[in-house]
Amino acid sequence: MSVSARAAEAKASVEMVTSFFESMGDVASDPEALDFTFGNPHEMPLPGLTSAMSAQLEPRSVDWFAYKSSQRLAQEAVSAGLRAELGMDFEPDDIAMTQGAFGAISLALAMLADAGDEVVIPVPGWFCYPPMLHAANLAPVGAALDPVTFDLDIDAIAWAITPRTRLVIVNSPANPTGRVYPREAWDALAAVLEEASRTHGRRIWLVSDEPYRRIRFDGIDFASPAASYPWSVIVYSYGKVLLAPGQRLGYLALSPLLPSEERAELRSACMPVQLAIGWGFPNALMQYSAPALESVSIDIAELTRKRDRMHDALTRAGYALTRPEGTFYLWGRAPGGDGAAFCRELAAHGVYLMPGTMFDQPAHFRISLTATMEMIERALPTLVAAPEGS
Ligand SMILES: Cc1ncc(COP(=O)(O)O)c(C=O)c1O
């Protein structure tokens, strides 16, 4: 075998997703296909995104497109945004600009974990955690969410922790379930992590994956675990709120509650570690655009209408669905209990959903609400008829 063992493991753990992605190749080129699979845009990009980038395109100095590590203006805009949003004392030096949440997670793994360490991840959870962990020589350990409500199961996380655990990854608003977890859940988790760190004589770090933080419904509050547990890093992406995941802008933010010595150590590690993992900074243009992009967003009112239309019509038709509190995903149980068979059946009628097998939940499916309202209206007759046929 030519590829490394960790590359082979990464490949194997994401095989289901890559083959599904490849199978969607033809669908992308079919204008009639009703594609509710990946969280990709189905409308022209936001004008606010285009104008922010256009305003920075013309070089203003010879080094406009030189090598750029985290840019001060971007760090300042992010820390000011986080202060306003989370009410915590973030400073520009707590921010490392990255290529989306993917880049921020890679940075967190490189900065905090050693080969062979275990990392606790939620199940169901984002399908890229296991391959990213394998590629970093780390071992994913799943901790199940509550099987009905998909609430955080603190006992399951406590059970998953061993002396080799170095990191716990949490995700709120959560992909694929759309759940947003309250402050009390994070306080309970913080108590478990503090206790386990003490028991094993080794600090367990928390990675709070928050790329959907600004995509919430019905005015539900957001609480970051970084406010409950000082040894937290926040990872964020603008790819979701701008619905432009190809533009690769995000950041890692250190919790301002970190004890000052550790905060200083991590601050000074970010830049060299980002260099070491392959110049893991966003490109110059995206960093210059970051201050303007802080206030650009997809239309949350329209997204709420799409959620309500889809959720209410499917619930009336007999589906068991989680009503998302955030994200742009709808998560449900397949009529008949076989998510893959259900998705295949719908695909034969031109409606494409993501089977729950991608998230280790074979009875479920996920719908991306990044589709247009027009696509939703066209798909609903097929979706509404499906439970009757099962
Ligand atoms: C939970 C979660 N984390 C991280 C990411 C990565 O985001 P990005 O591609 O914008 O870096 C995604 C993207 O789907 C996600 O769903």
Keywords:
Aspartate Aminotransferase, domain 1; 390 residues; 42% helix; seven-stranded mixed beta sheet; 13 strands; alpha/beta; 13 helices; globular; Aspartate Aminotransferase, domain 2; binds pyridoxal-5'-phosphate
Describe the structure.
By secondary structure, the protein is α/β, with parallel strands linked by helices. The chain folds into two domains: 5-46 and 298-389, Aspartate Aminotransferase, domain 1; 48-293, Type I PLP-dependent aspartate aminotransferase-like (Major domain) (Aspartate Aminotransferase, domain 2), CATH 3.40.640.10. It contains 13 helices and 13 strands. The strands form three sheets. Strands 2-8-7-6-5-3-4 form a seven-stranded mixed sheet, sandwiched between helices. Helix 8 (183-200) links the parallel strand 5 and strand 6. The radius of gyration is 21 Å and the shape is globular. The mean pLDDT is 96. The structure holds pyridoxal-5'-phosphate.
* Class derived from helix and strand content: alpha/beta
**Unreliable residue runs:** none
**How much of the residues is beta strand, in percent?**
5-15%
Mean residue pLDDT: 96
Series of H and E elements: HHEHHEHEHEHEHEEEHHHEEHEEEH
What separation lies between the terminal Cα atoms? 44 Å
Mass-distribution shape? globular
State the fourth-level CATH superfamily of the largest domain: Type I PLP-dependent aspartate aminotransferase-like (Major domain)
Q: How many structural domains can be distinguished in the coordinates?
A: 2
List the helices and strands and how they pair.
Layout: H1 5-23, H2 25-28, E1 34-35, H3 47-57, H4 72-86, E2 95-98, H5 100-112, E3 118-123, H6 129-135, E4 139-144, H7 154-160, E5 165-171, H8 183-200, E6 205-209, E7 232-237, E8 250-254, H9 260-276, H10 284-293, H11 300-316, E9 320-322, E10 329-333, H12 339-347, E11 351-352, E12 354-355, E13 364-368, H13 373-389
Parallel strand pairs: 1-11, 3-4, 3-5, 5-6, 6-7
Antiparallel strand pairs: 2-8, 7-8, 9-10, 10-13, 12-13
Helix pairs in contact: 1-6, 3-10, 4-10, 11-13
Bound molecules: pyridoxal-5'-phosphate (PLP).
